Amino acid sequence: MDAVSDLLPAFAKSMGSHFAPIFAKLFEPLMKFAKASRPPQDRTMVVACLAEVAQDMGAPIAGYVDRLMPLVLKELASSDPTNRRNAAFCVGELCKNGGDGALKYYGDVLRGLFPLFGESEPDDAVRDNAAGAVARMIMVHPESIPLNQVLPFFLKALPLKEDHEESMTVYTCVSTLVLSSNPQILSLVPELVNVFAQVVISPNETPEVKAQVGRAFSHLISLYGQQMQPLLSNLSPAHANALAAFSPKS
């Protein structure tokens, strides 16, 4: 099983959507390991494998959404943090690449992800992957997300603390909303400034991620000008200087 769960994503990565006919033959044998009677580590191995296949195979995963969503939604509530983490990653990829067929699950997905943002979730990597899932959903179908309800919890979970592979997805989502002057995110400017300041000073984030955040911060400055000063004066000099360094000068 270990070998299979490594091989399938590797094939998907190298073949992209052309992997679909091969995956079709392997899907049912793989799903035998995801039955409720199997141990949790088997189920999460399947979910992790499916997440990576969905990520790299792309659109053909849409044909499997109805089969996979019940499994993945159940795994979001697992008592095992690895299971929750993999389920959050998988559900995000299913929403991203699952086409319109995934839309009907958005409400259930958000309800399943919601507890992972709360104080009761002890695992930072789980929360980071939940943030990644929400970011993917927003990027694909922002009109299907109640942003006024979701964004406060989403931003409260930032900056990412453990799984920085989610950084580009998460901060691209935030930056895209800011750069498009989305009114829901612009109601959360203090939270944004706080997150951006922590991202640009983090040794764990790439220059690309920091540049992305810098562009969004510059947009806030262009919109609000001097109104931003009280927020900036609340930052430490190190945070303020880092933000200035990553903000493109107009």
Total strands: 0
Relative helix content: 55-70%
- Overall pLDDT: 94
CATH topology call of the domain at 1-157: Leucine-rich Repeat Variant
Under CATH, the homologous superfamily of the domain at 1-157 reads: Leucine-rich Repeat Variant
Give the distance, in angstroms, between the N- and C-terminal Cα atoms. 54 Å
The backbone outline, from C-alpha atoms, is: elongated
Q: So what's the oligomer here?
A: single chain
Going by helix content, strand content and strand pairing, the class is mainly alpha
Which sheet architecture does the biggest sheet show? Answer: none
Return the CATH architecture of the domain at 1-157. Alpha Horseshoe
Uncertain parts: none
CATH class label of the domain at 1-157: Mainly Alpha
Using only CA atoms, what is the Rg?
19 Å
Number of helices: 14
- Beta-strand residue fraction: under 5%
Helix and strand string, N-terminal first? HHHHHHHHHHHHHH
Main location: cytoplasm
InterPro entries: ARM-like, ARM-type_fold, Importin_beta
Keywords: Cytoplasm, Protein transport, Repeat, Transport
Subcellular location: Cytoplasm
